[in-house]
Amino acid sequence: MPPKVPPAKQPVAKSKPGASSTPARQTKGKVGTVTPKSSGTSLKKVSSNTKPATKNEKPKKKEWTKEDDAARKIQTKYRQFTAKKAIEKKRKEKEEYEELMEKLEKEAFLHMVKMEQEEAERRQQKEDEERRRKKEEQKRIKRMLESAFDGDIDQMKEILKEVSDLDDKNGIGNDVIGRSIRTKHMMSIIDCKDANDNTALSEAANGGHADAINFLLERGADPNTQGHFMRTPLYRAAFAGHLEATLALLENGADPRIYASDSQTPTDIASRDDVKAILQNWDISRTEELQKQLEAAKEKRAEEDRKRKEAETSK
Hints:
This protein is mostly helical.
């Protein structure tokens, strides 16, 4: 029996460079042979020098060259230069700011000193004006007291005119406020007092001038003020023995019942019999009626003053 011969091996076709390393799928034909399935397209050639890249491959270290060193030096010098310029600029800005602040502080200080000097000058000027005003007022008061004692009505009129002219000069109007201020200034002269609290009316009574007494009473003088030793104008007129002055005072509300510090009334110290008789026989009911009128006049002036204050507050 002859030996069995193994079947001949089919030759494997070698893949051309660039062809896929994956074996081609084979299909069975009717005759039982396997044939590669052609795609019908030509394959591109891949260079034999190209190596496939791997993910874990380290990048090649760059070598430091002379050009790199020169570039580093240039950048360092440039950065130093720009930093120096920036510092110089900041320093200059700081110096300019400090100079400006110093200048402003000096100007503010000088301005403050100037304002204080101006304020001091205004205050001094105001004080000087106030002292001058008071000095002039004291002079007018002294003249008013002397004129009342001498019975010089013309001089008293002149003094009151000076007060009115001064109000005009100071711009005091004639409205509610202005009238109240004018009345206040006028009454401060009419009821002015000396160092012993004796009024102009008291001086006129002591001098025995009935006309001067009537002049002052008509302008609102108080007939019952108490001066030195609590003596009223009527007390002084009676003590001096001035009959007409005593009558003028009684007829304008002077009260003969007021006691002085010596516990005596005008009737008690009258130096003349006719003066004493007038005082003893005087109808007190007339005095009480006249005093009501005087109180009404005072209330009117007080009301004007109240309206003035309200008007000033509402402004």
